[in-house]
Write a structure and sequence with these properties.
By secondary structure, the protein is an all-alpha fold. The protein has one domain. It is built from 6 helices and no strands.
């Protein structure tokens, strides 16, 4: 048995007649409308997302700019405490806590949009500052407890050393903040060095810890 395949070939005139019919049909324009609507919706969503990320990054930078001025005040407070200690006096270390709204509220959303160096720099800046805030807030009580219990021979000398280390910590954080604001975040965890020299992973890097953590 032989099968014969029949193919319908439309004449040019018939083809020209079908095209206007398709274009003029409601289904055609409905499909076009759906496609355009989807494209516009996705395009609008993409643009809004990009604008939001840009605004959040800007908010982070603006917060760091404000923190730079906070650090100046905190350093002055630490210097006053040091001066008082050197005269065997105790001065309160309470200061306004570091601004951290952008850090706590926006960083989770920004995380995937930041480079590894940016994330490391941001975390290190804020963790050093928040740690110093805690140390300053508890300084007066801890010094009083040390004097009362006489745990060490020279409690004032011990706290004096910690406060001097804190000044060094603030100065280092200022440099990290400046690098981030300029768009070239410091490689605070030495990611580039470690990636180029894996054998260096066992080495101790000074800037990974604040002086207070020694």
């Amino acid at each position: 048995m032989h099968w014969t395949e029949r193919v319908m070939v439309l004449a040019p005139a018939d083809q020209n007649a079908i095209l206007p019919t398709i274009i003029n049909s409601e289904g055609f324009w409905a499909a076009i409308g759906v496609i355009l609507g989807f494209g516009l919706s996705e395009g609008s969503r993409y643009i809004r997302s990009k604008l939001r990320i840009r605004n959040l990054k800007r908010a982070m930078v603006e917060e760091l700019k404000s923190i730079k001025y906070q650090i100046l005040q905190k350093k002055e407070t630490v210097r006053q405490i040091i001066s008082a200690l050197q005269q065997s006096k105790i001065q309160s270390g309470i200061t306004i806590r570091t601004f951290d709204l952008a850090y706590k509220k926006y960083l989770p959303e920004l995380y995937e949009h930041l480079s590894l160096k940016e994330r490391n720099c941001i975390h290190t800046i804020y963790e050093h500052l928040l740690l110093n805030d805690e140390l300053l807030a508890n300084y007066e009580k801890e010094l009083g407890d040390d004097l009362l219990r006489k745990v060490t021979k020279d409690p004032m000398g011990k706290h004096l050393s910690h406060l001097k280390d804190m000044l060094i910590s603030y100065e280092q954080v200022e440099k990290w903040i400046e690098s981030y604001i300029k768009g070239d975040p410091a490689d605070v965890l030495h990611v580039e060095v470690l990636s180029k020299n894996p054998q260096a992973k066992g080495k101790r890097w000074v800037s990974m810890k604040s002086p207070n953590e020694e």
